[in-house]
Structure formats: C-alpha cells, structure tokens
Design goal:
The chain is of the alpha/beta class. It has a domain at about 1-105 and about 165-205: ATPase, nucleotide binding domain (Nucleotidyltransferase, domain 5, 2-Layer Sandwich). The chain has 5 helices and 10 strands. The strands form 2 sheets. Strands 3-2-1-4-5-10 form a 6-stranded mixed sheet, with helices on both faces. The protein has a 4-stranded mixed sheet with strand order 8-7-6-9, with helices on one face.
Amino acid sequence: MSWLGLDTATDRASIAVGRTAESASVETLAGARRHAAELLPMIDRALAAQGISLADVRGVIVADGPGSFTGLRVGATVAKALARTHGLPVLSAPSLMARAFAVAGEGNGRNGTPVLVTADALRGDVYAAVYRFHEAGVETLARPGVRHRDDVEHLLPAGGIRAPDAPPSAASLIALAALPGGAHPVTDVQGWEPEYGRPAEAQAQWERAHGRPLPDPARAPD
C-alpha cells in the first residue's frame, strides 16, 4: 500500500503519495498562507495521480519540524483529521532529516557521508542538523536546533555534505518510513504536537514588547 507524506514546515508545502519515494506523485505549493486552503486539494490530486483513494493509504508521514509555527500546525491538523476519520496511523520525522535524505541522494551521502542541512529560522538564525544515511538506517549526528547562520560549519565532520536551505521533500518522508532511525510512529496522535523549534514570531514580538514570557492559558495559576 501507499504512504501519504506531508511537509508543511516552511512556506513551501510538499505532498507525496506512493509506495516508494521514487514512484511517488508529488505536489508542491509556495506561500504559507495558502497551506490551509490548498493542502487537501493537493492530497486529492496526488491520490488521483496514483489512481488510488485514502482507503489504499497505509498511513500518514508528517514532517514534524522544526519550522513555521503556522505551517506545522496545518500539517498536524490534517494528519490528525485523517487519523480520526479514516483510522490511518501517523508517523513523524524531522523536516530537516527529510531534506538531508533528498540531498544525500544526489551524491554519495547514502553511503554514510554526513549531511549538514539548514533551514531559515528568521532573526538571523537557522535550524540546523547533521545526519548520516546508510543501509543500516539513519544516524543523527546533531539533533535539530536553532543556531546563528554563521555558527554551523563546525557541526559538519570533515568530508561531509553541506546542504544550505534545502527544499522540503515529502517523497523523502516515504523513504524514511522504511529506515531504522527515520520516521517513527506517533502513539498519541490527538495529543501530539510538532517540534516547532522556537516560539512563533508573534509570540516573540509580544515577549520583547512586554519584557516577560507570554502567559500560557493552559497552565493553572499558582
């Protein structure tokens, strides 16, 4: 059966449907504000291109961040809705891992060469991570984190591949479902949240303006 991959971690959404990354039908969309309205039609088009329906999908694989707060929420909401209405299992993998896997396929990176991948985190920073891909699976050498754009080169071992601001790759999420250390099952789907990486820009602006953390409405007062 086929997988459905969703990557909405940036302003460019990537959707893939297929049994493998190589055979998947892929849809892309630029513009974060269009994600909520266009994601389901994109999924429908990818399913139609494969000649299948959601009944033929074995599960949803979501890029769980880090990345855009709004984009990640859209992807997570769609995955939860599909799990609830169609009984589909949900898997997740870091968005940076999927991008690194796609870049690794362009050279010798799937033979164990480390891949450093970055994505814009705004405010002069990037999200950065380092992965190694080989037959035994995925090895995480540096977990995704926020770093200054000029302070990432030391993360990459000698002879590694540098992948600055690599684009999202939902097809790679499908490949990661079969690799140890890649995509992993989400056990509590409805309670699960993506790894945003840092507060939303609106929250950061509020905290700078008020000089204190934004109150958490879910937290009971002391």
